Amino acid sequence: MIIGKIISVDDLPNSRDRAIYEYIVDGKIYRNRTNWTSYCLFITGGDCYVFYDVKDPRHSYIKYSGQYVHCLVGIVFTIVGLGVLLMGAYLSMFSSL
User: Fold this and answer.
1) CA dihedral (63, 66, 72, 74) positive or negative
2) Residue 54: pLDDT above 80?
3) Which residues pair with 11 in a beta bridge?
4) Is the Cα torsion angle 27, 33, 34, 38 positive or negative in sign?
5) What are the φ/ψ torsions at residue 53 (nearest 5 degrees)?
6) Which whole number is the average pLDDT over 76-82?
7) What is the distance between the alpha carbons of residues 65 and 46, in angstroms, rounded to a whole number?
8) Which residue among 24, 35, 55, 90 is buried most deeply as judged by most CB within 10 Å?
9) How far is the C-alpha of 57 from the C-alpha of 83, rounded, in Å?
10) Burial 63-80 (b: 16+ CB within 10 A, else e)
């Protein structure tokens, strides 16, 4: 695994993206692209973890490209929703007294 850089992002109208990334192995620059996905957050100029085939560095993929951001946002909204639900239940107990 090495650190690469997101060079650009291709966008489709239906919220699907794919990143073009660049990485250096043994002094040679390689450029590759991800598959189309709606579960990642790519930031042009941002770093990414590149996993590549040692025998043929042209073959690679990236990980940790934003999927955890989506999970974190989902968890935050769930916690906030549960908090509002519990607060509503608590307050409704006092309004009936």
Assistant:
1) negative
2) yes
3) 17
4) positive
5) -80, 120
6) 94
7) 10
8) 24
9) 49
10) eebbeeeeeeeeeeeeee
70 phi and psi angles, rounded to 5 deg? -65, -40
Distance CA 44, CA 42 (A): 6
Name the residue with higher pLDDT: 89 or 71. 89
Bridge partners for 30 per DSSP: 23
Residue 35 is classified by DSSP as P
Q: Are 8 and 20 in contact (CB under 8 A)?
A: yes
For the chain, give the number of residues: 97
Beta-strand pair 47-52/2-11? antiparallel
How far is 32 from 94, CA to CA, in rounded Å?
Answer: 61
What own/partner pairs with CB < 8 Å and gap ≥ 24 does 6-10 have? 6/42, 6/43, 6/44, 6/45, 6/46, 6/47, 6/48, 7/31, 7/44, 8/44, 9/42, 9/44
